[in-house]
Amino acid sequence: MERNVVAYYRTSSQSNVGDDKDSLKRQQNSVITYTKSNGMKVVNEFYDKGVSGSTDVFTRGSFLEMMNYCKDNSIDTIVVENADRLARDLITMETAFMYLTSKLGFHLISVANPETFIEDTPTQTIIRQILGALSQFEKSQIVEKLKGARERKSTLNKSRGYVSRNGKGKVE
């Protein structure tokens, strides 16, 4: 008998949302492939579009909708593509993990590293926290790269004589 689960997806930028974008499709493909090969059935999917991974999970619209759905339908397992879809901030991830598993009795499964959330042993805790720290580090690097690219583009636009409404060189 298949185990009923829900899938949670998150995309941090509105620019990655849409039929022509890969983020949601990639996440869905990973989750569906994993669940089918592990005797699980995704009975509903929840997607937070344009929500930062550092945002508290309990303030995310689709995440809260998912929690209510799980409660109303006796679902106790949430599947994500990767731990960073749950959170890209170590504290946010750990807080969510502890509350969801210890207080509410949920099981979390990260397709990329299924053992990440399954056991709360000292070894799994350190692995989960290292993965959370790496996700946070990766997010910080992305922010820095984007900031640098925006600054270079602004300088280039100003040198070409493009002026924006706010005067900072960004053409809107």
TrEMBL record:
Residues annotated as domain Resolvase/invertase-type recombinase catalytic: 4-157
Cross-referenced InterPro entries: Resolv_N (IPR006119), Resolvase-like_N_sf (IPR036162), SSR_resolvase (IPR050639)
Keywords, in A-Z order: DNA recombination, DNA-binding
SUPFAM superfamilies the record matches: Resolvase-like
Stored Pfam families: Resolvase
PROSITE patterns linked to this entry: RECOMBINASES_3
GO molecular function annotations of the record: DNA binding; DNA strand exchange activity
Keyword match Protease: no
Name the record gives this protein: Resolvase/invertase-type recombinase catalytic domain-containing protein
Source lineage: unclassified sequences, metagenomes, ecological metagenomes
